[in-house]
Amino acid sequence: MLREDFLWGFATAAAQVEGGGEEQELASGKGPSIWDWFCEKPGKILDGAKVNKTCNFIDNYKADLALMKSLGVNSYRFSISWPRIVPKGGKDDPVNEQGVKFYSDVIDECLRLGITPFVTLYHWDLPLELYQRYGGWLNKERAVEDYVRYAKVCFDAYGDRVKHWLTFNEPFVVAIHGHSFGVFAPGHTSNTEPWIVAHTLLVAHATAAKVFHDEIAPKHGGVIGITLNGDWAEPWDQTPENIKAAQDKMDVAVGWFADPVYLGDYPESMKQMLQGRLPEFTAEEKALLKGSSDFYGCNFYTTNMIKAGADDETNGNTQLLFTRPDGSYIGPESALDWLRDVPWGFRKHLNYLYKRYQMPIYITENGYACKGESDKPAEEAIHDTDRVNYYKGYLGAVQDAVNDGVDIRSYYAWSFVDNFEWASGLVPRFGCVRCDYDTFKRTPKDSSKFVGEFFDSHIPKKEASA
Ligand code: PNW
Prior knowledge:
With 466 residues, the chain is α/β, with parallel strands linked by helices. 43% of the residues lie in helices and 14% in strands. It is an enzyme of class 3 (hydrolase).
């Protein structure tokens, strides 16, 4: 069994679900984010989808929350759009009261339904203006100030009701996909910028967390942390070089952020690999980072087999494979080339995180996009057997890790509803609920019921108090 107070629900992000179209966006007072701008560049989004027209959560939030409730959730993870709260983003720029009210209403509706809101402050939608003013996360001094002011506006507006906060979602992806691969906004391809961006994100996280710990928690209580991606890295074989390679891969995917936050500095292997290109923390920054995250936030999707000896710093100079030495695949294919269904890696990953960082773990994302689902008509797509199998395996791994002694406090399935999958547009579908993008109609898939039943039978019911 899981904890009695285990939080479970679905996760979404503002940019991926909110938009109901251009007119709505103009009327809302929201400013453009770097993703609005990125979507206008030819060839960047697989199907040419625009981030301002996704699932229309803006108009649908009440029905969406009611549907979640009917599926049995006790929590919901969503993100706040920075340019909806501060359209131009900067510390001296005006606040959009209409935007502040929107999330306030969402939070109130959650609480009315007995759903604990779990709020992400930054899920990749940087106000475009800040990118144009000073390059966004490349400018540590200015980006930190502006982010912290935005965070304060949110803490002040919602801290009385929101007790679970995430500063950043997957800083790795912001740094690498955004500034090295160039496939995510802002689309840079550099071998110096990612390390600078990551440094800014860490300092911004720690500075906002300090404000929360100093000014908000004493008044209202609550916890704050950062959430990190990172797939499990399984050594290709038991040779010393491949065992080391798997550790090097974990160091870049997880340790790059988790080591400074929980252990005090970047991993040694990254210092070796990057030499002068890895920024150094000042003594003040180190002190700020220590204790900045009240828990370990974990997003998890897949596992790779790792071999030594590739020229790719973004993977710690290792080679990522989905095959074993005998040539067999470690899991079936999904709709995305980086994702396969490999449940056993999750248990290992959770044990690794708990042993190394010794923090309670909140699983903040886990999910699957079935191969071929987007080509199927709705009546077929809602019978998402591959996704059910994925959740069966991965939820079993969560229970196994708990039985191993790992302190796991939450689980959020990615995602509630099919949504804007960044550079892949509306093509891959990650939802446990189907979205018809013409009508915005929602239809629950088989997986939504499976996940609900799993938690219904794995979270002990609270004894009715006398
Ligand atoms: C996460 N990769 O992103 C994000 O937090 C979500 O917004 C996203 O929709 C979800 O996972 C599914 O992709 C990732 O290329 C994006 O390895 C890309 C990768 C991993 C995670």
